[in-house]
Write a structure and sequence with these properties.
- With 565 residues, the protein is of the alpha/beta class.
- The protein has 3 domains: 249 residues, Rossmann fold (3-Layer(aba) Sandwich), CATH 3.40.50.11780; 159 residues, no CATH class; 80 residues, no CATH class.
- The strands form 6 sheets. It has a 7-stranded mixed beta sheet, with helices on both faces.
- Helix 10 links the parallel strand 11 and strand 12.
- It is globular, with a radius of gyration of 31 Å.
- 45% of the residues are buried.
């Protein structure tokens, strides 16, 4: 600011309105083998219907991945899903070549599949790897149709036959005959249940690579189908479309009166991924800065007594320090179990950490897609209880018990522990799932996997600190590159204290203190370009043990004499 040379009033504005931002707390994340959908990339779904639409309905081999994800979505509304990659996953294609792998859109773009070799791949390929793509069909009808249009099976899907586009006329090719209709058909009925069902239609597209719509976007049929289709990729022009893709230069004439039909075959998959493949999928959630996720599950161990993947997902969460990992014992260890020994042995192999949560039993659920009952890991439901707690209360409330721990959509438990067995499980850091007569199935514990006595051995406390740390750290970025002086220190305190007062008012903490002044920002700290704030918190504790003392007294005794009050 300039120096004043004569008396006057100088007005300066100081923005002290910074607040701690809200942060997410109930976004789920999982990995699994599915029948459809993008491979090796994170896709967000908001409902079971959307899960089935994007990743396909479950089969006998994929249900153990699909149903826990669907279980989470009973309670929460945002789930990030990674379909596990496997070397034997290949895309169905029109040429019937069994070596084509296009995992996702990025893979298609990077590989440059478009306009490669018609003899190699054919005109079209299934959008995603897997046998589900077998039987997909693409039918074309090109401009200038005469007799072929009248007998085309899909004529009724369109208002008129393809001819010459407005764009062709605008560039001086009034008889180009560049238009083309595209129909995608569920030839085998695997998507709709009825063979021959029309899945998608695209009308009045152009064979010209530079064709535009009125809004300036591409009307080139390869571009439009690639952008919009949920089922197929364009690979190359059909050999009968000899001029397709050439530029409209004022005198182009495109192949007309052509009807084509392509059927996808040789798609394949393997729904038994290795531990290494599952862990590679989990690694997509490893970066806390780029992937916002709070409740992670899907570290499935299938062999009896194994905990490799459970430990991997727990260690990932512990490294991130802003997410909780939910793990379940191998299903085979709990189905028909009469003791807690198998579950305890499994839990003893897990890392001691407050960022992990273990449950005690597989869930017996109804698979409506296949009309069968299945035992599945409980981790999706347990993570979902935390998401539901965020919706009905706050993150720092316990997700267990009658109030917030009711497990939905479950017929029975594979292993329902007795009271004595619950004692054993709890001592082993495992939260029992319990079916009480007349009360349904409940999560009956709120422990983390932390082995030592600490406030952080409870789910609600760990999740409280995750929310506080995440929110305050995000807000603290506003102090970066400012001066470490009394003003900045006061600004930080004035930002954080209302946030903590709000949490206190909502029963998350019983008391707090924020120290950010010259006592912890000494000259040495300031000279080191550092900024220090000490935030002391007394977290609220959940009740785990209730003692009820019933005392019989003689007639005429004053209760105050006995109670001492």
């Amino acid at each position: 600011m300039a120096f004043q040379l004569s008396p006057g009033v100088n007005v300066k504005e100081i923005d002290a309105t910074n607040v701690v931002p809200a942060v997410s707390s109930s976004i789920g994340g999982t990995v699994g083998a599915f029948n459809w959908g993008p491979v090796a990339e994170i896709t967000t779904v908001g409902s079971e219907k959307e899960l089935a639409s994007v990743f396909g309905q479950p089969s006998d081999l994929t249900a153990k991945y699909f149903l826990p994800a669907a279980g989470f979505l009973l309670y929460g509304s945002a789930l990030k899903v990674v379909r596990i990659a496997d070397a034997s996953h290949v895309n169905a294609n029109a040429a019937g070549t069994a070596t084509l792998t296009i995992n996702n859109e990025s893979a298609y773009d990077l590989a440059g599949h478009a306009t490669t070799d018609l003899a190699t791949w054919g005109s079209w390929a299934a959008k995603y790897p897997g046998a589900l793509g077998n039987g997909l069909q693409v039918h074309l009808a090109s401009g200038g149709l005469t007799a072929a249009w009248d007998t085309w099976a899909y004529k009724s899907q369109f208002s008129a036959k393809p001819a010459t586009s407005e764009y062709a006329e605008q560039v001086g090719a009034p008889t180009a005959g560049d238009e083309i209709h595209v129909v995608v058909v569920d030839g085998a009925g695997v998507f709709t249940g009825t063979a021959g069902t029309v899945l998608e239609t695209y009308e009045f597209l152009s064979q010209a690579s530079n064709a535009k719509k009125s809004d300036g976007s591409s009307n080139y049929y390869a571009d439009v189908v690639n952008k919009l289709s949920k089922y197929v990729w364009f690979m190359d022009h059909d050999s009968s479309l000899s001029d397709a893709g050439s530029l409209l230069d004022g005198d182009s004439t495109f192949t007309g009166d052509v009807v084509t039909s392509d059927t996808m075959t040789t798609g394949a998959d393997d729904h038994s991924p290795s531990d290494g493949e599952l862990q590679l999928a989990l690694d997509l959630f490893a970066d806390a800065e780029s992937v916002d996720v709070n409740l992670l599950f899907g570290g499935l161990d299938t062999a009896a007594g194994t905990f490799t993947n459970s430990k991997y997902i727990i260690d990932l969460a512990t490294t991130r320090k802003d997410v909780m990992a939910f793990v379940s014992p191998p299903t085979i260890d709990t189905v028909g179990a009469t003791s807690a020994a198998n579950v305890i042995a499994w839990a003893n192999g897990l890392t001691s950490t407050s960022y992990g949560v273990a449950d005690s039993s597989a869930l017996y659920v109804y698979d409506k897609y296949n009309d069968v009952y299945r035992n599945i890991p409980a981790y999706g439901h347990v993570a979902g209880l935390c998401a539901n707690t965020d919706n009905v209360a706050d993150t720092w409330f316990s997700p267990a018990g009658q109030t917030r721990g009711a497990v939905l959509g479950v017929t029975k438990l594979a292993f329902n522990p007795t009271g004595a067995q619950r004692d054993e499980l709890y001592q082993a850091r495992v939260n029992p799932l319990v079916a009480f007569a007349g009360e349904g199935i409940q999560l009956f514990g709120d422990k983390t996997l932390l082995a030592r006595p600490s406030a952080f051995d409870r789910i609600n406390v760990r999740r409280l600190f995750i929310v506080m740390e995440k929110a305050i750290a995000k807000a603290a970025r506003a102090q970066l590159f400012e001066f470490n002086d009394e003003f900045t220190q006061a600004q930080f305190r004035n930002m954080v204290e209302p946030f903590l007062r709000d949490i206190k008012g909502r029963r998350g903490v019983t008391d707090f203190a924020v120290i950010c002044d010259s006592t912890n920002n000494t000259g040495e700290v300031v000279d080191g370009n550092r900024f220090v704030a000490d935030i002391y918190v007394k977290p609220a504790r959940s009740i785990n043990f209730i003692t009820l003392n019933f005392i019989a007294t003689r007639t005429g005794v004053d209760f105050s004499e006995i109670s001492g009050s």
